[in-house]
Design a protein that fits this description.
Length: 182
């Protein structure tokens, strides 16, 4: 079972940002899954711009593989579609799944890294798993060996946590392995 969560941004993609949120556009280099250097675009809250710029510079220097980094608007503002494409992104105006409260993504304060390989997993009251993206079931078992998995202690984890970000993989009520927020 899957609950779709989309981003509702309007025609220009950023018109629905919350009051007081100042967004920034970062152009960062990254190494894709074929080992090629690519330029990615991250829309984020200006308050975390420097942190993200520094983190992605270190990830690039270490050749840490990230499949793609594109704004959510490249996916018709559809979070599920972006995650299925394994797109790393930050700003997405949307509520927390199953809530009316705005997500940290809606404030530009959260980023999802290689989301297909690092799904968000929550056990629902009926015992079924909610997996986001819905195509990520093969990557739910975190004890299994598979590529591009973020785990406690790896470079991506260390870089984000050292700059004050919280990792969704440490949460108790659900596990959001793709997610870092400040």
């Amino acid at each position: 079972m899957f609950l779709a969560v989309g981003c509702w941004l309007g025609a220009v993609g950023l018109s629905a940002q919350p009051a007081g949120v100042v967004l920034d556009t970062l152009h960062v280099q990254h190494v894709d899954f074929e080992g090629q250097t690519r330029e990615g675009v991250i829309i984020c809250n200006k308050s975390i711009s420097k942190d993200l710029r520094d983190i992605f510079a270190e990830l690039y220097k270490a050749k840490y593989p990230i499949e793609r980094i594109r704004p959510i608007s490249d996916y018709a503002d559809d979070d599920e579609r972006s995650m299925r494409a394994n797109n790393t992104s930050c700003y997405c105006y949307r509520p927390i799944a199953g809530s009316k409260k705005l997500s940290k993504h809606a404030q530009g304060l959260a980023i999802d890294i290689n989301p297909l390989y690092n799904p968000c997993v929550r056990r629902q009251k009926d015992g079924t798993l909610l997996i986001q993206p819905s195509t990520a079931k093969p990557y739910v078992n975190r004890k299994a060996s598979h590529p591009y998995k973020i785990k406690r202690g790896d470079l991506c984890y260390r870089l984000f946590v050292s700059r004050g970000f919280r990792w969704g993989g440490n949460w108790k009520s659900l596990k959001d392995y793709q997610h870092f927020e400040k």
